[in-house]
């Protein structure tokens, strides 16, 4: 039910109140309801959140035909059939289908099916264990939580402080994934995941893309070769990549944007996307009423409980541990279990890899970048492992030497690396770059998470001829080096 439409003013008590109905909030609610706790969920926008309408689902809908066409063009006997341009209108229509036309009725029905109560409106903490919801019609409802309030409000795009930015209506990730047409000329500012994925999508859908990167390359948080291979492919597709470049000002006149860089370049464009980081959506949720700083990331313990507040949880992006939907959902399962255990007076498991500890946030965070080629990584890069004090060695394999890769694509280009802890003989991290490698990363995630000894990995036999045979090549390279 949608309680915010009610005219009643008496406080309503729940066991748990969840702020935010994105994937993280939904999963917290699912776990607490499964434990028999009464749960209210508060949402100011669409149930399903950023992932469903402005991030994961629309972006991958835009990218899937781009990557499928690129793969097909590498298959002998097929490439001539896919030489024409993509049907941009059809791609955008499918994107709209995957976002349900930005209608959340289906996800509202799911919330109702688990027995959670939905309150539409802006939720703010107004004291300990208390949330006040203000509806779009000005109605106010006060909710109290017997056991926990979970802040699952996510993050938003962070825009730089630039002269003229307020007047030009720049794109953020939201506009980039929901645009109704491909701009003729698109400037993308940034070199991370959003920047590279959106550059890949819109270049293929008809835009002329210029990528402005402040640093020395793309995907700086991954192994260096990941960004190098993605940059090479983007350039071959027609994108103009300028590294070591910052934007100093932007202006729009008669519909045309002028972007000025610190190198004195003046670039004309139709739209500009700033993919320059994220900020927590905590600026107006009442943190000041409980002694916390509005607009701040919320520090938590491993059960996702906010430091200094035994009833308050921060789950997903807001705690800044791992800004990824799948990690947020993982945290939500942990937090929901911890809330339920504490509510029942049961012990909370604090041992690593226990049911109430988000250990994977530190040890085994997987990520796939859906560019062409795909880049996928889990755990620590070589540099991160060395900085953490581990004695490690990088083992690299050219993916083109793997039989399955050659069958997957003519002229396959890719690379794999495993970071081996030479003292414990386990994997600290694994990175794959190449067509189709996104489906490889879960096997690496299992190996890193479970700390599988390298001698045991020899007995995990990869099927022939698949790209997964790279595991055998990596083990051989480690043995022979």
From TrEMBL:
The keyword Flavoprotein applies. Its cofactor is FAD. Residues 14-326 form the FAD/NAD(P)-binding domain. It comes from the Bacteria. SUPFAM superfamilies: FAD/NAD(P)-binding domain, FAD/NAD-linked reductases, dimerisation (C-terminal) domain. Belongs to the class-I pyridine nucleotide-disulfide oxidoreductase family. This is NAD(P)/FAD-dependent oxidoreductase. It comes from Streptomyces composti. The lineage of its organism: Bacteria, Bacillati, Actinomycetota, Actinomycetes, Kitasatosporales.
């Amino acid at each position: 039910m949608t309680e915010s439409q009610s005219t009643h003013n008496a406080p309503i008590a729940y066991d748990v109140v969840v702020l935010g109905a994105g994937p993280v909030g939904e999963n917290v609610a699912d776990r607490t309801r499964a434990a028999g706790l009464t749960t209210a969920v508060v949402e100011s926008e669409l149930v399903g959140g950023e992932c469903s309408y402005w991030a994961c689902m629309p972006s991958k809908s835009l990218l899937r035909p781009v990557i499928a066409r690129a793969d097909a063009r590498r298959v002998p006997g097929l490439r001539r059939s896919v030489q024409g341009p993509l049907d941009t209108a059809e791609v955008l229509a499918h994107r709209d289908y995957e976002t349900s036309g930005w209608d959340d009725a289906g996800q509202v029905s799911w919330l109702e099916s688990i027995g959670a109560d939905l309150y539409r409106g802006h939720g703010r903490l107004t004291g300990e264990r208390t949330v006040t919801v203000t509806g779009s019609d000005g109605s106010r409802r006060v909710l109290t939580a017997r056991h926990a309030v979970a802040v699952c409000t996510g993050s938003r795009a962070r825009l730089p402080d630039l002269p003229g930015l307020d007047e030009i209506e720049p794109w953020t990730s939201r506009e980039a994934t929901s645009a109704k047409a491909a701009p003729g000329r698109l400037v993308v500012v940034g070199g991370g995941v959003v920047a590279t994925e959106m550059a890949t999508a819109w270049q293929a859908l008809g835009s002329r893309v210029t990528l402005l990167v402040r640093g020395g390359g793309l995907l700086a948080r991954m192994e260096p070769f990941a960004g190098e291979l993605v940059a090479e492919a983007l350039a071959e597709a027609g994108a103009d990549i300028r590294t070591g470049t910052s934007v100093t000002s932007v202006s729009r006149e008669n519909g045309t944007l002028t972007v000025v860089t610190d190198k004195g370049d003046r670039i004309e464009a139709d739209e500009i996307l700033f993919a320059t980081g994220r900020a927590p959506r905590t600026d107006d949720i009442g943190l000041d009423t409980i002694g916390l700083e509005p607009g701040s990331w919320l520090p938590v313990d491993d059960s996702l409980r906010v430091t200094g507040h035994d009833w308050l949880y921060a789950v997903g992006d807001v705690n800044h541990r791992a800004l990824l939907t799948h990690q947020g959902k993982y945290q939500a399962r942990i937090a929901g279990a911890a809330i339920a255990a504490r509510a029942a007076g049961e012990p909370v498991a604090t041992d690593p890899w226990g049911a109430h500890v988000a250990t994977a946030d530190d040890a085994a965070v997987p990520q796939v970048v859906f560019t062409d080629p795909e880049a996928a990584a889990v755990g620590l890069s070589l540099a991160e492992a060395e900085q953490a004090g581990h004695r490690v060695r990088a083992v690299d394999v050219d993916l083109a030497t793997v039989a399955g890769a050659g069958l997957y694509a003519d002229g396959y280009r890719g690379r794999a690396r495993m970071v081996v802890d030479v003292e414990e003989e386990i994997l600290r991290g694994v990175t794959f770059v190449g067509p189709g490698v996104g489906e490889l990363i879960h096997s690496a995630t299992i190996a890193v998470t479970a700390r599988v000894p390298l001698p045991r990995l020899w007995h995990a036999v990869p099927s022939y001829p698949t790209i997964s045979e790279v595991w055998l090549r990596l083990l051989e390279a480690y043995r022979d080096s």
